[in-house]
Design the sequence.
């Protein structure tokens, strides 16, 4: 509660209590309230004077001393003291209420903070979950790429082996063809030699017949 609100509360209760206890005129009650408020709110230093440190009750007492006659002063002071105590009680009640409200605000702040912390924890868990899923997905992709690479390597090895087998077969066929060609040429040479030998024998026989 601010100082102005505090003074206003005390003024209200003191003026009401005194006016209820004694038949004061409206002007006196207003003047009492004004003096009480003035004595409570006057805080600045005057030239060469120290600030008067009167509290909540002293403002009420000084006003009552001024406006009340001497034979009624004690009663008015008691009423003013009761009014001041009531004002203090009201202020304490308002202070308690403000404290409760502050506690409620603090509790709400703590609850909001916990909610934010839980939300942040949940978001962190979500991030961890997504990061784990991304890692697992990356591992699956790497494993898939590795298996695909191994598959391509196996296929390349199979193709290389097939090409080697094909070249070996071609070389064998070429070798057989060369051997066949060589055999054919050798047979032709042998046939030629055989013809030449028969031709020579025939010529020799003819020469022998001519000599005979």
Sequence:
């Amino acid at each position: 509660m601010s100082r102005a609100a505090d003074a206003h509360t005390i003024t209200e209760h003191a003026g009401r209590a005194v006016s209820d206890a004694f038949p004061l005129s409206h002007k006196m009650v207003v003047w009492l309230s004004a003096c009480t408020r003035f004595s409570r709110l006057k805080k600045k230093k005057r030239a060469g004077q120290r600030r008067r440190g009167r509290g909540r009750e002293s403002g009420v007492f000084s006003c009552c001393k001024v406006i009340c006659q001497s034979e009624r002063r004690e009663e008015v002071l008691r009423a003013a003291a009761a009014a001041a105590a009531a004002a203090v009680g009201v202020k304490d009640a308002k202070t308690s209420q403000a404290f409760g409200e502050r506690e409620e605000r603090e509790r709400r702040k703590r609850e909001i903070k916990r909610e934010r912390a839980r939300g942040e924890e949940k978001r962190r868990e979500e991030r961890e979950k997504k990061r784990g899923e991304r890692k697992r997905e990356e591992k699956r992709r790497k494993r898939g790429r590795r298996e695909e690479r191994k598959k391509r390597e196996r296929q390349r090895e199979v193709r290389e082996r097939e090409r080697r087998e094909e070249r070996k077969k071609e070389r064998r066929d070429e070798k057989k063809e060369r051997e066949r060609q060589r055999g054919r040429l050798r047979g032709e040479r042998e046939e030629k030699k055989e013809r030449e030998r028969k031709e020579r024998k025939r010529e020799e026989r003819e020469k022998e017949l001519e000599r005979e």
